[in-house]
Amino acid sequence: MTTVTISKVKFNILQKRASLYDAILRSLPEKRWGIETYSSSRMKEFAWSDRLDVRVKKRIQKFMASRK
Q1: What are the residue boundaries of the structural domains of the chain, listed by start?
Q2: Dihedral through CA 20, CA 24, CA 27, CA 30, nearest 10?
Q3: Where are the alpha helices (DSSP H) in the chain?
Q4: pLDDT tens digits, the chain, 68 residues: what are they?
Q5: Is the Cβ–Cβ distance between 52 and 60 less than 8 Å?
Q6: What Rg, from alpha-carbon coordinates, does the chain have?
Q7: Which residues contact 10 (CB under 8 A, 6 or more apart)?
Q8: Residues in Cβ contact with 68 at an 8 Å cutoff, skipping those fewer than 6 apart
Q9: Is the pTM of this model over 0.70?
Q10: Fewer CB within 10 Å, N or C, the chain?
């Protein structure tokens, strides 16, 4: 086991962050507001709108290939 040493100030900061994250996670939106549910046709609409046309797709592929 590895021992990590941190200052008390950093420990207090981490402890406050942890309690903040805990508070956020305990009050997730689904506990406050309803979760939206989509029909399969609506999901198909989302998928269709996310598609790229051939020209844009080729530009992206060309750009990605140039970065290698």
Answers
A1: 37-68
A2: -170
A3: 8-26, 29-32, 40-49, 54-66
A4: 788 899 999 999 999 999 998 888 777 766 666 667 889 999 999 998 888 888 998 999 999 999 87
A5: yes
A6: 23
A7: none
A8: none
A9: no
A10: N
